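Try this one yourself first.
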């Protein structure tokens, strides 16, 4: 694994032994330092002869700019733009530069901040491969679902994660949670109509209720009954890394298999 930099974006990058023309761009949930499940993702993807990149969001940890809903989107769009156009990347430790270009991109997201990936086709019509893991689709508290609420999420940011952020756009996020930022995934599903979408959720998740994924999948099928959509639900899986049930490994193995058939 390398730590690379381009523009204001930094984080983990790794290549398969043979190299690949396909890059899996992984958007983490709650921004954090590299974690065990990310190492599994990287390993599984590289062993399948694909390359892997997980960027820091703008204004988090090693990256720059203001941390807002739009900057989350910009992080992934800028990542694709950079690798698509074969611009230079720099190894943070060695200082060496290289140029790498990719033909295909698979965007993978999970948990709270992963919502951004489902919006990618809204901003770039050439993005066709979307993978969603235990995802957030809406931000309302008025449902009966047993899950983390908006105020819980913001408390975690204020109590813990703000120490990892260079700054946090409280006003922008408040508008986002009030659905006034026009970036709610469930209201932008039409952009996924022609995409390859892999959706997985673990049914014992007490952070994001599994019914949100079930509802989203049914709506996807209604938009395009012949669409290339796949839903995988894993019994007893909890939200976080579960060594006993190997939920991450199972989900990612199925995810990679799904896209192997689409990328041929």
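Now uncover the answer:
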């Amino acid at each position: 694994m390398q730590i690379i930099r381009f523009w204001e974006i930094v984080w983990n990058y790794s290549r398969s032994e043979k190299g690949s023309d396909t890059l899996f761009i992984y958007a983490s949930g709650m921004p954090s330092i590299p974690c065990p499940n990310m190492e599994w993702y990287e390993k599984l993807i590289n062993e399948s002869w694909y390359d892997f990149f997980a960027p820091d969001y703008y204004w988090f940890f090693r990256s720059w700019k203001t941390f807002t809903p739009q900057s989350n989107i910009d992080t992934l769009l800028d990542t694709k733009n950079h690798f698509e156009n074969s611009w230079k990347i720099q190894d943070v430790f060695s200082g060496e530069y290289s140029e790498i270009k990719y033909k295909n991109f698979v965007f993978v997201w999970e948990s709270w901040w992963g919502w951004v990936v489902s919006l990618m086709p809204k901003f770039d019509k050439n993005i066709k491969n979307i993978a969603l893991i235990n995802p957030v689709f809406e931000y309302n508290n008025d449902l009966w679902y047993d899950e983390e609420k908006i105020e819980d999420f913001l408390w975690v940011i204020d109590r813990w994660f703000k120490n990892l952020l260079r700054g946090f756009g409280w006003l922008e996020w408040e508008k986002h949670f009030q659905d006034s930022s026009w970036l709610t995934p469930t209201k932008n599903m039409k952009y996924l109509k022609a995409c390859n979408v892999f959706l997985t959720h673990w049914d014992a998740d007490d952070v994001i209720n599994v019914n949100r994924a079930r509802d989203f999948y049914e709506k996807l099928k209604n938009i395009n009954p012949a669409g290339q959509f796949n839903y995988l639900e894993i019994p007893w899986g909890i939200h976080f890394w579960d060594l006993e049930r190997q939920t991450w490994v199972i989900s990612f193995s199925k995810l990679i298999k799904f896209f192997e058939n689409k990328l041929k």
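Discussion: The beta strands are 2-6, 9-14, 22-27, 51-55, 88-91, 97-99, 104-111, 129-135, 196-202, 229-234. Helices lie at 36-47, 69-84, 120-123, 150-159, 170-177, 210-223, 247-262.
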